[in-house]
C-alpha cells in the first residue's frame, strides 16, 4: 500500500514514528525526573493483572482496526500487482501508433521504426532489451472438440530480439523456442488448452482474416507470453504477419528495463524521456505499461484500505470513547487513593502524571497486542472476501508489510495516549476531602474567560467551514460547518444563563432534524454539492451525538413517563427508580456508554 487518504505511507510512517519517539522521550524524561510518581503510576498494572488484561483488551480496539484495514489493503495491493505482472511480465514500456485502427486494435506501422527505436536507446544503460511485436485478438475453435473461445490474445515474437524478456516455459520448466515452430504450428497457454480441451498435436482454427487458419498445437506453456491475458497463443512474428497480410509491419515495440519485474518500472521516466525525441513526428507514442499497472494496483489497495477505515471509524470512535470511559472509571474507583495522595502533598500535576504513566504502559502494550491481532483479523477477512468474491478472476494471496504494522502500532499508541492525557486531566480535578470521604463531586459550572472564548470560536469556526464547503461544493464540509453552528449557538447561550436542558436539547434536536432532512430538499437547495464515503461516518456521528444529548438531558422526563406507564405493575416503580438512579446521576459516563 503506497498511499492512505492521499498521503504516501512512507511519509505517514515517518511522521508517526517521529511523534511516537518524541512522546516516548518526553515520558522517559518526566519519569526520570519524577521516579516516585512513575512508580506510583505503573505499580497498579502488575498488581491488578485481571483488571490490566481487561483494560488492554478495551484499549486495543482502535489499533486492531487500523492493523486489519492496512493488512487488507496490502493483500489487495499485492494480489492486484501479481495479477498485473502475470500479464505484463518483464515488459515495462510499449510503443504503439497514436491512432488505433477502426476495429480498436493497435494499428500496424513499418517495421523499420523498430530499428529507429532500438538505435535511439542503444546508449541508455537503463534499457535491457527492445523487441518488435505483433498482437491480435481473435476467436479460436478446437477442431477435435468443437469448443471455442471468442477472444484470445495472439502474439507474434521475433525470438532473436527477446533476450531480457520472459521466456515461454511449460509445466516441467522446459523453455519453448518460437524458432522451432514451423509455419503451421504455434504454442498455446495451458489455460486456453483447458478451455478448448486440446493437447499437443491437436489442431486449432484461428479466425484472423476472412480465411481461417488451421494451426497445430506444438506445446503448452504456463508462463512467459507477455503482454497478454491468460488465454493466449504464440507464434513467430513472420507467421503472424503472413496470416494478417502485414508482411514487414508490426503494431508494437516492447521495451524491458534493467532490474526485476518491479525494479524495471523505476527507470520508466528516464527511458521515456529518451524516447520522446526519437518518436517525434513518427505518429508513435510510448505507454508506461508496467508503471500504470502498478499505480492502478497501489490505488486499488489504498482505496480498499480507506474504505475499510471509513467503515471502521464508528468502531474506532467507540474505541476512543471506551478508552476515555475506562480511565474515568479508574479514577472513580481510585478516588480515595488519589485523595490521600493529594492530602500528603501531591499536586494536580502529579495526579495527571500518575495516570499518564499508567496509561502509557497500557497504551504501549495494547497497541502491540492490537497490531498483531489486527494482522490475524485481516487474514480472516481476506479468507472471507476470497470466498464471497470467488467468481472474480483475482487470486487473493494474503500479504502484509512491516510498514503497515508500524503505522498501526504508532497510530494506536498516539490515539490512546492523547485520550489518556485528556482523561487524566479530567480525573485530577477533585476535592481532597470529598475524595477521601468518597463523596460525589458537586456539579459546578465555571464561567471562565477561556470557556467563553471557546464558546464564541465554535460557531465562528463552523461558519467558516460551512462557507468553505459551499464555495468548493463539498457537502461534508458544508454539513460539518452548519452542524458546528447548530451546536455552538445553544452552548454559547448556556454561558449566559440558558439552562442545560434547553441548550443541549435544542442542539441535539437541531442536529437530528438537520441530518435527517430528505435528500431531495438538500439537493434542491444545493444541487452541485459533491459527497463521498466520509458522509457515511459524519452523518452517523452527528445523529448519535444529537440523539444522546436529547435523551440524556431529558432522561428524567422519560423515566417519569416510564414509571407512570408501568407504575401499575406491583413492585415495578421502586425497581425502575433504583435502576436508573446511577445513570441519571452520572450523565457524562452514561452518555459515553
Mean pLDDT over the full residue set:
81
Give the amount of beta strand, in percent: 5-15%
How helical, in percent, are the residues?
A: 55-70%
Strand order of the largest sheet: 5-6-10-7-9-8
Q: Structural class of the helix and strand makeup?
A: alpha+beta
End-to-end gap: 35 Å
Question: Top keywords for this entry?
Answer:
593 residues, 60% helix, alpha+beta, two-stranded antiparallel ribbon, six-stranded mixed β-barrel, 22 helices
Q: In terms of topology, how is this protein built?
A:
Layout: E1 3-4, E2 7-8, H1 9-33, H2 35-42, H3 44-47, H4 49-59, H5 61-88, E3 93-97, E4 109-110, H6 112-120, E5 127-142, E6 148-157, E7 185-189, H7 190-196, E8 203-206, E9 213-221, E10 232-236, H8 237-243, E11 249-250, E12 252-257, H9 268-279, E13 284-287, H10 289-333, H11 335-343, H12 348-388, H13 402-427, H14 432-436, H15 449-472, H16 475-494, H17 500-515, H18 519-525, H19 534-552, H20 555-566, H21 572-585, H22 587-592
Parallel strand pairs: 6-10, 7-9
Antiparallel strand pairs: 1-2, 3-12, 3-13, 4-11, 5-6, 5-8, 5-12, 7-10, 8-9
Helix pairs in contact: 1-2, 1-13, 2-12, 4-12, 5-10, 5-12, 5-13, 10-13, 10-19, 12-13, 15-16, 16-17, 16-19, 17-19, 20-21
Fold and architecture overview:
The protein starts with a strand and ends with a helix. It is elongated, with a radius of gyration of 34 Å. The protein has helices spanning 9-33, 35-42, 44-47, 49-59, 61-88, 112-120, 190-196, 237-243, 268-279, 289-333, 335-343, 348-388, 402-427, 432-436, 449-472, 475-494, 500-515, 519-525, 534-552, 555-566, 572-585, 587-592; strands spanning 3-4, 7-8, 93-97, 109-110, 127-142, 148-157, 185-189, 203-206, 213-221, 232-236, 249-250, 252-257, 284-287. β1 and β2 (7-8) form a beta hairpin. The strands form 3 sheets. A 6-stranded mixed beta barrel has the order 5-6-10-7-9-8. It has a two-stranded antiparallel ribbon with strand order 1-2. It has a two-stranded antiparallel ribbon with strand order 4-11. The mean pLDDT is 81. Helix content is 60%, strand content 12%. The protein has 593 residues and is α+β, with helices and mostly antiparallel strands. α16 (475-494) runs antiparallel to α17. The protein has 22 helices and 13 strands.
Amino acid at each position: 500500500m503506497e498511499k492512505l487518504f492521499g498521503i504516501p505511507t512512507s511519509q505517514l510512517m515517518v511522521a508517526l514514528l517521529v511523534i511516537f519517539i518524541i512522546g516516548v522521550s518526553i515520558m522517559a524524561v518526566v519519569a526520570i525526573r519524577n521516579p516516585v510518581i512513575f512508580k506510583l503510576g505503573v505499580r497498579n498494572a502488575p498488581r491488578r493483572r485481571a483488571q490490566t488484561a481487561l483494560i488492554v483488551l478495551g484499549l486495543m480496539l482502535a489499533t486492531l482496526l487500523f492493523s486489519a484495514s492496512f493488512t487488507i489493503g496490502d493483500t489487495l495491493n499485492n494480489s492486484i500487482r501479481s495479477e498485473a505482472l502475470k500479464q505484463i511480465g518483464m515488459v515495462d514500456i510499449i510503443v504503439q501508433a497514436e491512432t488505433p485502427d477502426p476495429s480498436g486494435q493497435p494499428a500496424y506501422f513499418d517495421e523499420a521504426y523498430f530499428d529507429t527505436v532500438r538505435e535511439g536507446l542503444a546508449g541508455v544503460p537503463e534499457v535491457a532489451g527492445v523487441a518488435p511485436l505483433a498482437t491480435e485478438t481473435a476467436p479460436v475453435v478446437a477442431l477435435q472438440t468443437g469448443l471455442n473461445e471468442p477472444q484470445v490474445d495472439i502474439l507474434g515474437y521475433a525470438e532473436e530480439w527477446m533476450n531480457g524478456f520472459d521466456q515461454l516455459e511449460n509445466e516441467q520448466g522446459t523453455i519453448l523456442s518460437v524458432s522451432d515452430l514451423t509455419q503451421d504450428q504455434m504454442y498455446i497457454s495451458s489455460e486456453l488448452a483447458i478451455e478448448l480441451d486440446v493437447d499437443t498435436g491437436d489442431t486449432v482454427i484461428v479466425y484472423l482474416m476472412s480465411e481461417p487458419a488451421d494451426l497445430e498445437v506444438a506445446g503448452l506453456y504456463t508462463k512467459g507470453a507477455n503482454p497478454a491475458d491468460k488465454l493466449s497463443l504464440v507464434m513467430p512474428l513472420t507467421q503472424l504477419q503472413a496470416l494478417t497480410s502485414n508482411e514487414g509491419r508490426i503494431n508494437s515495440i516492447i521495451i524491458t528495463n534493467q532490474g526485476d519485474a518491479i525494479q524495471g518500472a523505476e527507470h520508466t521516466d528516464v527511458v521515456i524521456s529518451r524516447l520522446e525525441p526519437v518518436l517525434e513526428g513518427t505518429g508513435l507514442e510510448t505507454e508506461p505499461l508496467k508503471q500504470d499497472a502498478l499505480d492502478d494496483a497501489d490505488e486499488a489497495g489504498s482505496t480498499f484500505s480507506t474504505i475499510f477505515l471509513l467503515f471502521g471509524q464508528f468502531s474506532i470512535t467507540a474505541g476512543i470513547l471506551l478508552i476515555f470511559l475506562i480511565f474515568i472509571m479508574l479514577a472513580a474507583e481510585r478516588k480515595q487513593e488519589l485523595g490521600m495522595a493529594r492530602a500528603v502533598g501531591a499536586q494536580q500535576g502529579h495526579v495527571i502524571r500518575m495516570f499518564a504513566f499508567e496509561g502509557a504502559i497500557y497504551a504501549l502494550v495494547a497497541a502491540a497486542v492490537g497490531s498483531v491481532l489486527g494482522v490475524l483479523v485481516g487474514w480472516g477477512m481476506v479468507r472471507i472476501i476470497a470466498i464471497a468474491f470467488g467468481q472474480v478472476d483475482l487470486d487473493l494471496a494474503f500479504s502484509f508489510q512491516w510498514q503497515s504494522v508500524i503505522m498501526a502500532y504508532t497510530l494506536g499508541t498516539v490515539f490512546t495516549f492523547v485520550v489518556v492525557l485528556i482523561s487524566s486531566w479530567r480525573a485530577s480535578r477533585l476535592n481532597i476531602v470529598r475524595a477521601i470521604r468518597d463523596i460525589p463531586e458537586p456539579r459546578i459550572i465555571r464561567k471562565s474567560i477561556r470557556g467563553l472564548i471557546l464558546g464564541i470560536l465554535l460557531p465562528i469556526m463552523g461558519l467558516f467551514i460551512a462557507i468553505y464547503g459551499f464555495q468548493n461544493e463539498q457537502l461534508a464540509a458544508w454539513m460539518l460547518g452548519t452542524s458546528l453552528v447548530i451546536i455552538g449557538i445553544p452552548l454559547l447561550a448556556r454561558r449566559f444563563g440558558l439552562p442545560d436542558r434547553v441548550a443541549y436539547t435544542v442542539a441535539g434536536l437541531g442536529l437530528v432534524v438537520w441530518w435527517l432532512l430528505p435528500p431531495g430538499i438538500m439537493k434542491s437547495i444545493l444541487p452541485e454539492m459533491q459527497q463521498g464515503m466520509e458522509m457515511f461516518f459524519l452523518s452517523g456521528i452527528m445523529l448519535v451525538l444529537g440523539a444522546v444529548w436529547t435523551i440524556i438531558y431529558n432522561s428524567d422526563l422519560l423515566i417519569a413517563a416510564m414509571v407512570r406507564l408501568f407504575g401499575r405493575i406491583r413492585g415495578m416503580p421502586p425497581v425502575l427508580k433504583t435502576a436508573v438512579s446511577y445513570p441519571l446521576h452520572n450523565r457524562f459516563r452514561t452518555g459515553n456508554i
